[in-house]
Design goal:
The longest helix is centred in the first third of the chain and has 25 residues. This protein has 29 helices and 20 strands. α5 crosses α14, α12 runs parallel beside α15 and α12 packs antiparallel against α26. Helices cover 32% and strands 8% of the residues. It is of the alpha/beta class. The structure holds N-(4-aminobutyl)acetamide and zinc ion.
């Protein structure tokens, strides 16, 4: 019965293709250290968002490179802290090429190379400058102002001064507002907000959306008798009029504008307008569904036309479809840019048209018209009983990917609470806590500029609880835990799939989802729908006996909400043989001084650093291993060198053991403070890193596995079963963490999406049989066969959408460097020689390890951190491109960049086959 999401008539009509955002949009999101796609070069100034010039970090006596002899200055010195300048992750400790060497002219270069190199550099620079200048013209300068603080709360008792004169039990009643206010006072939220004075909307403001005739008609109701009011009301659908209705509707609209203006000016971070009558059913010339004026639509137009915003997102989670808002914007004639600038998203009860307002326009096939195509997104529910899981799924799968792509500058929420459990109209099962989560998810958008305007909500209990939860999120409180099923019900899945199928054509961020997943299992869906009547059965979590009810800790107030732990002594761990080793002491000193410069450090509560104790280390490591590391204290350099080289990519000095104990101890200190409720969350600025460390072996610059220790320690301290999630967003696979926990169902779930070729043999693609939430979706293809990965569309997916068994290849993640400009691809041998042995020892010194192969002559040589033979080879031969056997990345010496291009595929395919025994996943 479920059709494979046919495009609606609308869609087939005169719709343009995907919405195209101005280039500047992408520029705006770039920040120093976050993007590899803009690489700062020595002496070069890079402009980022807001026109701020990002200079190399200011000289700081203890922050100079250990060997300040590079000429030109080390790329490393110009990079933000923590950003390694080249292929120098643990995966690629090899031929970091020119950076960091004194760059003597190579003795025998092929004659064309210097010239090609010069031209390549010039072309690159030219291109980047052009792009940057282009971007600068549209930069949103407001975004660079200091982050605004304060949550606005607007309310006026005056708004309770109207009611239905002829129906005492009419659901839209004054008690809605008074009970919300009482609840917010009780919960201590009012005193934490900044009061915003309610005001009347001017006539001019009302006319941004409504016609003069309609405004005049509404104004005339202020002097009408009850009989006339009733007669007039009856000519509309579901409205009543009171002599104060007009006044209050204007007050409600003006109050939303007051909050919006304070948020847009930066006076407040976000806000909530407690208003009635509601607004989202009101149309240009019509009142409807308890609504007179469409406050949110007026505010969106106001933001665009009088405050100069280009993109406003309206999220309507009222259980009714905001058809008024849709009609106002679906074919917005006031489009002044290439694209419509108001995106309307509504999730609502539809019941295949049986639910009010009974319009086919409320279905997901309505996508907007003309210029507005794709900018109306409807998600209709066809059954009552939708739960938190359904709403959260709707946000994660549909709204957020589009919203991240749209990049709104303001989010307006038509915040009805009639989908809350117990509401007589909605018949849904959304918990009050869920509104905190929905609000929280939106705070990631528009720099946090989120304004909620009250719409429906007719069960006074769930209404007040819901408003309180949402306001808590605006104030920065942690979201209360959710109970109930984790997976969306079949009917919700069906609705979401259909909407995804329709909107994937407009929004590239939706295109990775295989929406036919459900339609191929129509019978299953029908069965499930029949069996459960749409109310989903509870889902089994992986370890049922270990599910304590987690009471939310009392919310912390700033400034003591975030802990920070750091100890200078961690810098005493260093590589005495290579001062340019990427895992160097400045990583933490610079991180800390940057936190100070930004004023973030003083907003944190400093937590006491400490050493991890022996019993603590034994939570994850073997006694033999701990003893072996302890024994390195006081060793002579030669012995230290030997001690380090028994592991993969590890160095040690006399202070390494202590530094590693400190790194782990600092993380434990952070855990202590969080579990004790002293802080809400915490940051540990520590080194050496930990996630590669195995129970009985150091690995990849890591000695003790600080995060794994912290997880076990948290369990121990809590004294009860505690569910711990470890998120590892390091570019490399956290082999150590995985090995420590993979057979321990009680402890932790490592949640790692990528199959990483480094360290060798540690990656496997995880199936996820335990997570019902993921079973509903197929993600056939996160990696693109095209050499250029479009990060802007991939990011939201990676950030917010659980991606299940799919994995992202390292190729895709590295392919963020501009690719077209490498002038040396022609030097790559088109076909690797048969019989190439990628695991071969270095042809110069015979050492084994993560060696590299020259892509021109296919010599296998060792890395910079072993004997540097590949570097020497590059200098001597002029062969510019090498392939890492560790992670199959290709590095160009002259571009100082990872290069990916179809030309390199034959070599990568062969290397992958030899290394993993299967095909390069991006090609499958
Ligand atoms: C704002 C709102 C509901 C109208 C229901 C009409 N309106 N039957 O919730
Ligand atoms: Zn409603």
């Amino acid at each position: 019965m479920v059709s494979p999401t046919p495009p609606s008539a609308h869609v087939q009509g005169n719709c343009v293709a995907q919405p195209r955002l101005p280039r500047a949009v992408r520029m705006v999101s770039l920040r120093a250290g976050q993007s590899d796609s803009i690489r700062q070069r020595p002496g070069e100034t890079i402009f980022l968002k807001g026109g701020e010039q990002v200079k190399p970090f200011p000289p700081h006596p203890d922050l100079q490179p250990l060997t300040p002899t590079c000429n030109p200055p080390c790329l490393a010195a110009a990079m933000p802290p923590g950003v390694s300048p080249g292929p120098e992750g643990p995966s690629a400790p090899a031929p970091s090429g020119r950076a960091g060497r004194r760059a003597p002219p190579p003795p025998r270069r092929s004659p064309g190379l210097p010239e090609a190199k010069r031209r390549g550099r010039a072309r690159r620079l030219h291109q980047e400058v052009a792009e940057l200048q282009d971007g600068l013209q549209h930069l949103d300068l407001a975004a660079e102002k200091p982050v605004p603080s304060g949550t606005g709360l607007a309310y006026d008792k005056e708004l309770t001064s109207f009611h239905c004169l002829w129906d005492k039990s009419f659901p839209e009643c004054p008690a809605r507002l008074t009970s919300i206010w009482t609840k917010l006072v009780e919960d201590g939220l009012v005193e934490r907000c900044v009061p915003v004075q309610a005001r009347l909307a001017t006539e001019e403001e009302i006319l941004l959306v409504h016609s003069p005739q309609f405004l005049a008609l509404m104004a005339s109701t202020a002097d009408m008798e009850e009989g006339k009011l009733r007669a007039l009301s009856d000519t509309y659908d579901s409205v009543y009029l009171h002599p104060n209705s007009y006044h209050c509707a204007r007050l409600a609209a003006g109050t939303v504008l007051a909050v919006v203006d304070k948020v847009l000016s930066g006076e407040l971070r976000n806000g909530l307008a407690l208003i009635r009558p509601p607004g989202h059913h009101a149309q240009r010339e019509r009142m409807e569904g308890y609504c007179l004026f469409n406050h949110v639509a007026i505010a969106a137009r106001h933001a665009r036309e009088r405050r100069g915003l280009q993109r406003v997102l309206i999220v309507d989670w009222d259980v009714h479809h905001g058809q008024g808002t849709q009609f106002i914007f679906e074919d917005d004639p006031r489009v002044s840019y290439n694209t419509p600038s108001v995106l309307y998203f509504s999730v609502h009860r539809y019941d295949n048209g049986a639910f009010w307002p009974h319009l086919p326009d409320s279905d997901s096939s309505a996508v907007g018209r003309g210029q507005g195509c794709g900018f109306t997104i409807n998600l209709p529910w066809n059954q009552p009983g939708m739960t938190d899981a359904d709403y959260i799924s709707a946000f994660l799968q549909l709204l957020l990917p589009v919203a991240f792509e749209f990049q709104p500058q303001l989010v307006l929420v038509a915040a009805g609470f009639d989908a809350a459990i117990g509401d007589p109209k909605g018949q849904m099962l959304v918990s009050p806590a869920c509104f905190a989560h929905l609000t929280h998810m939106l705070l990631a958008l528009a720099g946090g500029k989120v304004v909620l305007a009250l719409e429906g909500g007719y069960n006074l209990h769930s209404l007040t609880e819901g408003v309180s939860a949402a306001l808590g999120s605006l104030l920065g409180d942690p979201c209360p835990p959710l109970a109930g099923p984790a997976a969306p019900c079949p009917s919700a899945l069906q609705s979401i799939s259909k909407a995804l199928g329709i909107h994937a054509q407009f929004w590239p961020s939706l295109q990775h989802v295989e929406v036919s997943a459900l339609s191929t299992e129509d019978e299953g869906v029908e069965e499930a729908l029949g069996e459960t009547g749409g109310v989903p059965s509870p889902v089994e979590l992986p370890c049922p006996e270990a599910l304590p009810s987690l009471e939310a800790p009392p919310p912390r107030r700033p400034p003591a909400c975030t802990g920070l732990v750091y100890d200078e002594r961690m810098t005493q761990h260093y590589n005495m043989w290579d001062s340019q080793h990427p895992e160097r002491p400045q990583r933490v000193t610079r991180a800390l001084s940057r936190l100070q410069e930004l004023g973030l450090e003083r907003r944190c509560l400093r937590l006491p650093p400490r050493l991890a104790t022996e019993p603590e280390l034994l939570l994850c490591h073997s006694p033999e291993y701990v003893a072996r590391l302890r024994a390195t204290v006081g060793l002579r350099p030669r012995e230290l060198h030997r001690a380090g080289s028994r592991y993969n990519s590890v160095y040690m000095c006399g202070e390494s053991f202590e530094a590693a104990c400190l790194a782990a101890g600092c993380v434990l200190s952070a855990v202590d403070a969080v579990l004790a409720g002293q802080v809400q969350n915490a940051v540990a600025v520590v080194r050496p890193p930990g996630h590669h460390a195995e129970p009985d072996a150091a690995c990849g610059f890591c000695l003790f596995n600080s995060v794994a220790l912290a997880a076990r320690y948290a369990q121990q301290v809590a004294g009860r079963p505690l569910r711990v999630l470890i998120l590892d967003w390091d570019i490399h696979h956290g082999n150590g963490i995985q090995h420590i926990f993979e057979e321990d169902p009680r402890v932790a779930t490592t949640w790692q999406q990528q199959q990483s070729p480094w360290p060798r043999a540690s990656g496997h693609c995880w199936e996820t049989p335990h997570w019902p939430h993921l079973q509903s979706w197929h993600y056939p293809c996160l990696h693109t066969p095209s050499p250029v990965l479009s990060m802007p569309s991939a990011w939201p997916a990676l950030c917010t959408v659980p991606t299940g068994p799919a994995f992202v290849s390292m190729d895709a993640l590295y392919a963020v460097t501009p690719l077209s400009w490498c002038p040396h691809l022609s030097s790559v041998a088109p076909v690797p020689p048969a019989g190439l042995d990628i695991l071969a020892p270095c042809q110069k010194c015979g050492c084994q390890g993560e060696n590299w192969v020259c892509l021109t002559c296919y010599q296998v040589l060792c890395s910079r951190y072993v004997a540097g033979h590949m570097v020497a080879h590059g200098d001597a031969s002029g062969h510019p491109m090498v392939l890492s056997f560790a992670d199959l990345s290709a590095w160009c010496y002259d571009c100082e960049a990872y290069i990916h291009h179809p030309t390199l595929l034959p070599a990568k395919i062969l290397a992958h086959r030899l290394k993993f025994g299967n095909e390069l996943p991006a090609l499958l």
